Each structure stands twice: as C-alpha cells, then as structure tokens.
Amino acid sequence: MPYSKQPNKFQILSLLQWPLSYLAIFWILQPLFISLLFTPLWPLPAFYFVWMFLDWKTPEQGGRRSAWVRNWCVWTHIRDYFPIRILKTENLSPEHNYIMGIHPHGLLTFGAFCNFCTEATGFSRTFPGITPHLATLSWFFKVPLIREYLMAKGVCSVSQPAIDYLLSHGTGNLVGIVVGGVGEALQSVPNTTTLILQKRKGFVRTALQHGAYLVPTFTFGETEVYEQVLFHKGSRMYKFQAFFRRIFGFYFCVFYGQGFHQGSTGILPYSRPIVTVVGEPLPLPQIEKPSQEMVDKYHALYMDALSKLFDKHKTQYGCSDSQKLLFM
C-alpha cells in the first residue's frame, strides 16, 4: 500500500498519547503516587488503595465505562492519522448478546482500540443499543490507575468470570476478543493473512453456554502499519521474547514504522487505511454444557463465515484476489 501524506503535529501527539499514557502511568505516575505515602499527603494514596481493595471485583462485573472518556477529541486525531473506520454489513439487534472475534491482532490493535474503545468512528451510531467491551489481559486490572483508565474506555478482562458476567446481565452486550492473542502479534508483518484460530475454541464454547451470537470481523490494514523484525526459533532473541511473555503475558516485539519527517524511519506507524469489517452475526443455541462435537461444529461455521467475509471485501481493501486466509 502507498504511504499517505505526512501526518500533522496534532495527529502525531494524539497517536503517541496512547502508548505513552500507559508508560507514563506505569513508570511515572505510579511511583509518584506511591511516594506520597511518605509525605503529608499520605491519606490520598492510602484511601485510593483501600478503595481499590473494595473495588477489586469491578473489572469482572461490567467495569465502569465513561462516555466522557470515550468521546475525548484525542481519539479523533488517532482515527484521522491512518485513517480508521468501521464498516457494518449487518445490523446487530439489542435483544441479543454477542461475542465478536477480532482478527488479526496486529502489533498494537489500532483498529479494535479506536472502533470499540472510543466513539471516534461512531460505534454507538452505527450499532445503536449495543454496548461494546474489548477484552484484554487480566493483569492490567491489577495495576493501580491503569485499571481506571481501561475501565473508563469500556475495556474488560478476558477472564472467564468477566465475560460470563457481561453475557448474563441484560442484553445488547458485545464482548470483543482478539482470538489470536499475543501469539499472533509475534507474526504480524505486512502482506500476511495468517490467523491463529484452528485450536482457539474457548470463545465458541462460552458463546454456546450463554446463547450469544458470534460475530466475525476482519480488520484490513492492521498488519500493514508496522514492519517487524522476526527472529528464528532457537535464537537468543526469540528465547528472550518467550521469557518476556512468561513474565508479562505478551511478547517483546521489535518493530518500526515511519519517522517524524517524510521518508524517515521511526516509531510512528505508517499512516495507511485501517478498516474493520463487521460481519453477519452467527446465531447459536444456548447449551449449558456443550459437547466437543457441538463446539467443533460452530467453530467450523465461524471460520467459514470469517473466510467468506474476508474474500468478499479483500480486493476492496488492498489484498489480491488470490489471497486467502490461513488458519493455524
């Protein structure tokens, strides 16, 4: 895909706000906040930690989303940087609950973040009556301050109790799961359409237990915004990446994009279009204890629906007519 025009300074600052906000909270604000315990302002962090203890289960009980945070204007600058948009192919009825499979993971999941964690692309207008929850690693919700930031955007834990809660309390809830997970991020390079899905069946079992509809989605352009340095299995760097994942739950990926000046290399992603295509929901029966055969059946139907969704839209969004989805 060709490069788009060089982004303006507002888009650059907005884009950097996302990853830097996590780093700032984790490495700067948290140490400063904890250090207040040894100052006359000690009641402030003390009360917060008491409140956090009492509030410990909130991330697994629907969270605490904020319409104000989801509508920050900074998200529109991120949207316009690439740009990012969402394409609806079918309506989603508020009378049902949904598990949305999000593919591919990419490196930083820009499409899922902008489309489902903010209102920058108009999710609520596109799917009225549907409340989206993007699921992420559970340990993020054990980190002070970061947990508040994530919950405000409607992010939930990918733990079974959190998903069960959302799918059993009312209707119109949509849980987005990046099925390929961090393993898929490690193989995210341009011009690839390989998904880790063949043995990922837990989301199908959960959908059957709750009678939730499965919604296939594919984000075109997600793997095109960064180049990644891949390391051979057995190399020291690959072993370090595996070790890093065991400690933190995700891989340490080495990647690069464009710099602050046209034609330069740097930390910014390439400003290339990202389009999340939301497919037709697949109805599932509610079965409290689904058999493996039943799980396999609907998993196969889901993969077939995802393949058809990809084939229908691939040439429109930069893929060749001969390109196919590969399932690992």
- Global mean pLDDT: 89
CATH class: Alpha Beta
Oligomer description: single chain
Evaluate the radius of gyration. 20 Å
What class, by secondary structure content?
A: alpha/beta
Low-confidence stretches: none
Which sequence of SSEs, written as H and E, runs from N to C?
HHHHEEHHEHEHEHEHEEHEEEHE
CATH architecture: 3-Layer(aba) Sandwich
**Strand tally, please?**
12
Helix content: 25-40%
Lateral arrangement of strands in the main beta sheet: 1-11-7-2-5-3-4
Principal-axis shape equals globular
Domains (count)? 1
The name of the CATH topology is: Glycerol-3-phosphate (1)-acyltransferase
Q: Could you tell me the strand content as a percent range?
A: 15-25%
Structural description of this entry:
Helix 1 crosses helix 4. Strand 3, helix 7 (146-152) and strand 4 form a beta-alpha-beta unit. The protein has twelve helices and twelve strands. The chain has a single domain (9-226, 269-327), classed as 3-Layer(aba) Sandwich (Glycerol-3-phosphate (1)-acyltransferase), CATH 3.40.1130. Helix content is 39%, strand content 16%. It is an alpha/beta fold.
